[in-house]
Write a structure and sequence with these properties.
Blueprint (H helix, E strand, L loop, with lengths): L2 H11 L3 H29 L3 H28 L10 E5 L1 H20 L2 H25 L2 E6 L4 E2 L4 E9 L6 E8 L13 E6 L3 E9 L5 E12 L6 E16 L6 H17 L1 E2 L3 E7 L11 H7 L3 E6 L5 E6 L11 H28 L3 E5 L8 E2 H14 L22 E6 L8 H4 L2 E5 L4
Parallel strand pairs: 3-9, 13-14, 13-16, 16-17
Antiparallel strand pairs: 1-9, 2-4, 4-7, 5-6, 5-8, 8-9, 10-12, 11-12, 14-15
Helix pairs in contact: 2-3, 4-5, 8-9
């Protein structure tokens, strides 16, 4: 079976019998009305006024019956989505040259009356008409789908997938580009066009595009544009497609120099805080009279000639609370925009460092809790709360209110949990009870 036969067979199988029946009745009725109108005109020329009037009313009645009884039924069966398409037009450089040539030919044909010039002018105008019709056909019946990974980190490339589906039953689409919408903003998702050379009828084509988001935060795409210059490139036509796409981009989690400097300090502070009785060896040290004899390491003592005891890490050593205090205060007014930019950059470094620390505890399978002044997770395995933590870090903003860091006072009573606190508060304003169970990272030193 040929391709043409398959198209005809598909259309025949999917035909709307009631619709085609109404269409046939309407065409037959209009043909009858047309011949009655011709008879009416002939009767009027012969002076038979009454007969001409009656046949004229009969012709108009048949046409009116078709308009009232059949046309609405046919309209309900017809997809008119293409009428609602919002399409923007832009004249290209090639189009300017083409229309200039048409204008010159119009002047020449009118002034000379040359039939050949009129024939050439008609061909050029037909080219514009054909271009408009074909480009409209190419843009209609196209559905857009845009897929992104579930988790996206700032400054790291991700692969998105753009899908165009051609729902037209007979015609393919050519030379389409998917672009961002009309409103350009730094938080736009699709920044460069994606090209689709050919989309067969009743099928979909996918293209992968690499995206990179320069900073954390919320990115939105209010609309996409499907653009084409097919077939001649005289006009660039863009169909706008509404979108409600919104994503949260997490802070960058690649280890930075600051993180490498902080990590050994964190490890040492946690080890000293959680030293106790457990099953994992923590360290060896000299025996003191208050030690129990069951912790003496007799082999090492025999080799060294002195009593040596073993210290064990507590079993909850990997339970930690990560706290980001968003209180940053006001930048110095005398330094103007420079101080404000430095203020913002310092806070961004703090957020990125918090994301690196959280990801580190996720990789070593710690039990973790994350807190800010407005958000708190449960104390749970880091793998269960890591993406809630990263999403909060993607959305958090600096707090300049005077009471912005007051929530730290509530943490002073939780002495059994080791806390890593990133804050801009002055050391003298930190509750005394926090110093014995916390390690502080001060934002102004990052």
């Amino acid at each position: 079976m040929t391709t043409h036969d398959s198209i005809v067979a598909r259309m025949w199988r999917g035909r709307d019998r009631a619709g085609w029946r109404n269409f046939g009745i309407a065409m037959l009725a209009l043909i009858v009305a047309f011949f009655i109108a011709l008879f009416s005109a002939a009767a009027a020329q012969e002076g038979r006024i009454w007969l001409a009037g009656i046949t004229t009313l009969l012709s108009l009645g048949i046409a009116g019956w078709v308009a009232v009884a059949i046309v609405p039924s046919l309209a309900r069966r017809t997809s008119l989505r293409w009428i609602a398409y919002q399409i923007d037009y832009r004249l290209t450089r090639d189009g300017v040259i083409y229309l200039s040539a048409v204008f010159v030919l119009v002047l020449a044909a009118v002034n000379t009356g040359n039939n050949l010039l009129f024939l050439i002018l008609a061909c050029l105008l037909a080219g514009i008409l054909i271009s408009g019709v074909l480009s409209r056909v190419v843009l209609t019946g196209i559905e857009l789908k845009f897929d992104l990974p579930e988790h996206i980190f700032a400054e790291q490339p991700v692969l998105a997938e753009v899908e165009l589906r051609n729902d037209k039953q007979m015609w393919p689409s050519f030379s389409l580009r998917v672009i961002g919408g009309k409103k350009k903003s730094p938080a736009e998702i699709l920044a460069r066009p994606v090209f689709f050379p050919y989309i067969p009828r009743m099928s979909a084509t996918r293209q992968k595009v690499e995206l990179r988001f320069p900073r954390r935060g919320v990115y939105r795409q209010d609309s996409f544009g499907i653009r084409t210059r097919f077939p001649f490139g005289f006009f660039e036509k863009t169909r706008q497609v509404d979108s409600n796409l919104e994503i949260a981009v997490y802070p960058r989690v690649e280890p930075t120099d600051q993180f490498y400097e902080v990590l050994p300090l964190l490890t040492g502070e946690m080890a000293s805080h959680f030293r106790g009785r457990g099953h994992e060896l923590h360290a060896l040290r000299d025996y003191v009279p208050s030690d129990s004899a069951r912790f003496v390491d007799w082999k090492v003592s025999a080799k060294s000639g002195r009593l040596v005891v073993r210290e064990f890490a507590r079993e909850d050593e990997r339970r930690v609370m990560l706290v980001l205090d968003p209180f940053l205060g006001q930048p110095r007014a005398d330094l103007g925009r420079l101080a404000e930019a430095e203020h913002t950059e310092r806070f961004e470094r703090a957020v990125s460092l918090a994301a690196c620390i959280a990801w580190h505890f996720h990789e070593i399978h710690s039990v973790m809790q994350f807190r800010t002044n407005r958000f708190s997770t449960l104390m749970a395995p880091a793998g269960e709360i890591i993406y809630d933590t990263l999403r909060e870090l993607a959305l958090i903003q600096a707090d300049s209110s005077a009471a912005g860091g007051a929530f730290l006072d509530e943490l002073a009573s939780e002495t059994e949990i080791f806390k890593i606190i990133i804050t801009a508060r002055a050391q003298r304003s930190i509750p005394t009870g926090l110093w014995s169970s916390s390690y502080f990272l001060f934002i102004d030193r990052l």
